Structures are given as structure tokens and as C-alpha cells.
Amino acid sequence: EAPLVESGGDLVQPGGSLRLSCVASGFTVSDQYMHWVRQAPGKGLEWVSVINIEGTTYYADFVRGRFTISRDISKNTLSLQMNSLRADDSGVYYCVRGKGFITRFWGQGTLVTVSS
Amino acid sequence: DIVMTQSPDSLAVSLGERATINCKSSQSLLSSSDNRNYFGWYQQKPGQPPKLLIYWASTRESGVPDRFSGSGSGTDFTLTISSLQAEDVALYYCQQYYSAPLTFGGGTKMEIK
User: Could A45 and B42 be called an inter-chain contact, meaning their C-beta atoms sit closer than 8 Å?
Assistant: First the structure.
């Protein structure tokens, strides 16, 4: 199981922006489906976005137009650019290596807090 | 969007006894093209990320103990733990990956009676 290490989580004000990163080791991010899944404190799991091998992206309705998933092959990194952040975007964001749409291997997560 | 409804919300079972969690989807997850159910189960322990237990409704992930089994097809699915162990105390989630957006059930908290 190749590790995934997320970073970039922070405290940000409502309306602000944040960029999350996920460095992959042991495999190439462009050879896999790569997902972001989030979990608000004490709540359940919410799928956020995926980028497939061809580079096609999909988003949950609640982030479409605000969040952008991307990958950097040279750095073997997955990213999530988050704009117009709201309080209900707070939570742990997990980077997940997919077997297609199956969210198979999960990173440890990075905490995003949106608060004034 | 496909809605996933899990039951019960919490479950207390004695050590060594059978535990069963149910999940119902708002539409069929059975693909006519490959006859597979696009459905999985996850386990999450406190302070840890979720771990994939079961995919294609009944295929156990590598390393998952065989006391965990998945069954069901179409819209109704079940996770069974045949003999509950202390280390199985966790939250369990179902998920559909039939179509984006992927969606999860609300979770079931498994406890020892």
C-alpha cells in the first residue's frame, strides 16, 4: 500500500481560499483515479471530487464551481483548489487512490477549518 | 444523486455473536454491462481514515478477515460480521460508486454489548 501524504489544511476565513496537496509515493498519480473525500467533525463521509486517468474530472454538487481538482505529474501530486470557502466546508480532507471509482487507499487527511 | 440509507444507526453485539448492517440505495447499483454491483463497505476506527472492507458488494479486500462478508444485489445490501471481535468496534459506512457523485450511507456505530 503506497502512502499518500496530504498537506495544506489550515484555518481560513469564510470566503477565503485554500489549496490542498497530496504527495503520492510508489505509484504515478496519472495512472490512477484519484479522489478527495471529506469528513466534517463528528459527521459522516462526503465524496468531493475525482480525476480519472484521462484527466476527466467529476465533482459533488456542493463544491462544483468552487473547487478544482488537478494533478502535477512532475511532482506526482494531487491538488484541490478550494475557493469561496464556507463554514460547512470545514473538516478533514482525505486524498484517496482509487481502483476506478472504488475509493481504495486513503491518506491520513488534512484538517480544514473555515471560521472567522 | 443516488441516496444511500443505512440501518441501524448503532448496534451493540456481544463478543463472538453475529452482527448485521443493512444498506439500501435509491436506485439499482447492478450494472447490466458487467453484472456487477457498484457497492462497497468501509470501516473507520477513531482517529483513523476509513478502510475499504468489501467492494463489488461481496469481494473482500486483501487482508480483511473472513469473518467480514458482504451480500446483496440491486438496491439492498448487507454487511455481516460472523463473530464479533473487540477490534471490530468502529463506524461502518456503505458507498455506491455506480455513478458520480459517489455517495455514502450515514454510518453505523458498532459497539460491544
Answer: yes
